[in-house]
Amino acid sequence: MTRTGFVHRALCYGSDDEFLDGTLTFALDGLAAGETVLAVVATRNIDLLGRALGRRRDEVEFVDADDWYGSPSRTLGRYNAYCADHDTDGAGRPSRIRIIGEPVWPGRTEFETREWMRYESLLNVAFAGTGHRILCPYDTRALPPGVVRSATRTHPELALAAGDSAASGHYADPADFYAECDAARPYGLPAGRDDIPFGRGRSALVRRALRSYALDLGVSEHRLDDMVAAVHEVVVNSVRHGGGRGVLRLRNDFEYVICEVSDVGTGASTVPPLFPGHLPPDRRAVNGHGMWVVRQLSDLLTETLDPAGSVVRLYFKRGARGPTRAACPPPAV
Q: Transmembrane ranges (predicted)?
């Protein structure tokens, strides 16, 4: 199937031969067309595809998927930056990018898996209108059936033998798929006596309370700076656009420090934006970068944007240090 616009295709493979049947032709076709070819795949598949390419291996840029697929939003940002850096050839003429991108699914929680499914769907929006091509391999030998089925809903095309493809009969519009992911997200955090209220003039107190809480959990200084910057941006947005006041709730589990920012809302009749903060903003735009930056700084983020009161929950990986203290409150301010 030939396409002149953006192509997003899933390759569901059950053997090494099937992996090569789909990826080798895809890579060689890109090289023959003078396109930049990037392969972000599992370690064993780097070796497999590299050997099959032979002398042309050095013309393909290989990256281990474990080093690339850290968080959904940062991964989308990384692909966006890569395409922006490689979208012209040596003579300054427009150039297409061809990507083999194999997401890392093993070891994810149900919540994390759903957010990676959302990411796959959002690629169709983020790169719409470009001539780039992304082929996403799914190893049916190792992945849960639900993950494999999701590929038919997040990819408009499915790879067939010998480099051919067919339209997916189960493809879901990204806006509809996004709404499904939202419907399955975790409930809001319950109120606690030590929740931190905020309003105009209290952002410094919120930052100090967050820093103290995270340091007690052993969060590194570098990661702490990201956390404080991201939460501060959300709190400021709530003060400016969410009725001027709200509450910060801090919790943690074995994996994450969880920061939930809720506000009272304005009551104004406004329509929330689609895909808030997921899509790369125009670099020349003065406004519209806030939620994008917040998503780049956090590991996961869920949002409910409502004129009656919005809730933004940020997740930050806490690392190996520090005991879990879910029942311990943050310091009062």
A: none
* 45, two tokens: 């598949």
- Alpha-carbon distance values, 141 to 101, 124, 147 (Å): 18, 26, 12
Contact 196, 181 (CB under 8 A): no
Q: What is the CATH number of domain 7-183?
A: 3.40.50
The separation between CA 234 and the C-alpha centre of its own chain, rounded to angstroms, equals 18
DSSP string, 133-190: EEEEEEETTTS-HHHHHHHHHH-SEEE-GGG-EEE-TT---HHHHHHHHHHTSPPPPP
The answer to whether the beta carbons of residues 7 and 157 sit under 8 Å apart is yes
Helix axes 43-53, 16-32, angle to 10 degrees: 60
Tell me if 135 sits within 8 A of 11, measured CB to CB.
Answer: yes
Range of weakest confidence among 117-121, 187-191, 318-322: 318-322
Percent of the chain topping pLDDT 90: 75
Q: Which amino acid is at 190?
A: P
Residues of the chain with CATH 3.30.565.10: 196-317
Q: Looking at 184-317, which runs of residues are DSSP E strands?
A: 196-199, 245-252, 256-263, 300-304, 311-317
Which residue from 148, 122, 120 is spatially nearest to 12, judged by alpha carbons?
Answer: 148
**Which residue carries 């396409």 as its tokens?**
3
pTM, to two decimals: 0.90
Cα 314 to Cα 5, 40, 267: the distances in Å are 34, 27, 24
Residue 161 or residue 59, greater confidence: 59
Residue 288 has pLDDT above 90, yes or no: no
Q: Name the CATH superfamily, with its identifier, for domain 196-317.
A: Histidine kinase-like ATPase, C-terminal domain (3.30.565.10)
Residues with Cβ within 8 Å of 273's Cβ and at least 6 positions away in sequence, in order, are: 305
**Contacts (Cβ under 8 Å, ≥6 apart) of 74:** 295, 296
pLDDT at 110 over 90: yes
H/E stretch holding 12 reads strand 7-13
